[in-house]
Design a protein that fits this description.
With about 280 residues, the protein is α+β, with helices and mostly antiparallel strands. It contains ten helices and eleven strands.
Amino acid sequence: MEQNNLVIEKYYTKDVDTDKSSIYCHHDLMGELLIPTHRHEKAQLLYTEGGIVYVTTETKTYFLPARHFMWIPNNIRHSIHPSSENVMMRNLYFPIDKNEHSFYNNEGIYPVNDLLLQMMLFTNRWNGNLKKGSRNFVIAKAIKAILPEICETNLPLALPSAKDKRLIKIVSYLDENLDETIFFSDLAAKFGFSERSLYRLFQKDLGMSFIQFFTIRRMLKAIELLLEKRLPVNEVAQAVGYNSIPTFSNTFYKLLGQRPSDYLNGVEILKKSQQS
């Protein structure tokens, strides 16, 4: 517990709510592979660079890749798990206003367009409390204000956590065999279920079907391989069980709204923007 407290203090999560009316800004390299479970009274915009970040709430694990941000409403308990200590976190924490747009009430992962990217990079020089009425507060407030206008698609880059012990074993098996063709009937037989009973277990425990779960898990792994391993698209497709490149590309597009090659190009544009 003492070690966890030290980690939390290092990442200033205890300072977020010290001034109830300010917008709190914090940019820094992670330096660690875990920010333990915590919550704050302010809502959080979390944008990351240089790697992948997993954000775990009480019900789901979110996958935050490059050129995307996550909106975390106030008082949501969550922990943060980066893929590397060298991941850069850019955080803006916003006080809650009356009669806010419904956008701000829901967790979500959203792509960052060029406008939002430039606004976020502009905040790089800030840290700590942005006092209400100050120039920087007004600019940060504008970032929040445009989100409902530019964030039309809440991407399904999240998977629910299995709670049933039987399903935990199945999910673990799927994670270890993402490159294999797995038929639902074979999976049910392997773990001693009828197809109907296993279908019901997926729906009851995860709120989705096997094919929905397995497809999203494969695509999340594909994003990870694209970002961290720099593998060609055809090798990534094979690594997550797709023999057909067009099928893989179409599935990827349905999840992220862009083709794998376009997604990688966007990440390269992001790097050039940071260097210029």
